[in-house]
Specification:
The complex is a heterodimer of chains A (about 180) and B (about 140).
Chain A lengths: L1 H26 L4 H20 L13 H20 L4 H13 L9 H17 L3 H4 L2 H17 L10 H20 L1
Helix pairs in contact in A: 1-2, 1-8, 3-4, 3-5, 3-7, 4-5, 5-7, 5-8, 7-8
Chain B lengths: L1 H22 L4 H18 L6 H17 L10 H18 L9 H37 L1
Helix pairs in contact in B: 1-2, 1-3, 1-4, 2-3, 3-4, 3-5, 4-5
Classes of the chains: A mainly alpha (about 180), B mainly alpha (about 140).
Amino acid sequence: MRNLVKKIPIFIFIALHFSFLLAVIIKNWENLISISILSVIVAFLSVFYFKRFNPDKSSIKKIDIFLILFAVIGAIATYALKIELKMSAVLAAGIVGFTSSLLPFINRNSDVLRELPVAIYCGAFAGMTAPFIANGYSFIISAGLISGLILIFSKDTLHGHGGKLGTIAFGGVSAVSLILFLFS
Amino acid sequence: MEIAITLISGIIGALATFYLNNKLQLGGVMASAGISVLFGGFFCVFPNLINEYLTTNIPVVVMGTSFIGMTTSKLTNQFWVIAIAGFIFSVIFLLTGTYFEGYGGTLGTTAAISFCSTYALAKLSLNHKLLIIINQFLQNNKC
């Protein structure tokens, strides 16, 4: 049972990645070249998850709860910059991420400050959601919250792999969209 | 032409971030966010420098591939892996089009898929090289 719980984060990543690729395959269904390219990508991604080149460790600390809060702050800040100051999503998330990356310089010995930029930048990706999907700050707060939760549970899953934070944010945004779709 | 520029932007975004992250030791977040601010800001200041498609898409592709560049050098220190991942990102980006438009995290998911599949390719090709070396060693010993 404990082993199964430890495997939940990697199952979330697998579900997100393969459902994303499935959607892209369905979109390009009539184009044989696109389908061939995507099939090769699916094959290599399957090899990646099957081989599991870097097994996960699991170590959640109580202080990680802070990371959820800062993921929400990152999401709100990015969305606010985008909506209130009419910035592009890329520039808004970039500014939030860059500002957060300066936080560890306040105290170089602090473990919490060192981890904050990651949480804030992860939240910033959730905050990049367009207004026609988000429909306001409550969506963004919920997406940031779920992203923060996935972030702390998958802290040591796919550690150091590029795109991990964005996948987590996509998970948060998809989860809130699904909940809204089912209950509204 | 637009497709070629998009593909090249993807490779440049990934390599530049990887260089800032691992060679200049800026850290993943600062490197990726810095690159995103640079490209996002540039096209915000000069919106009419190139055509509308590229003005809209280059910052998005560069930001997306900058997530690939956030990969730590403990996983790979080979620039070709990052360059190929950046290229694959651009291909998936072009194939995805506006399907996930507006969903936060789409770029990161594409980046993760690109990197993980390229990483598997790199590992397999390295394993293949290892098999060749072992085979040569065994054959030499038989002789």
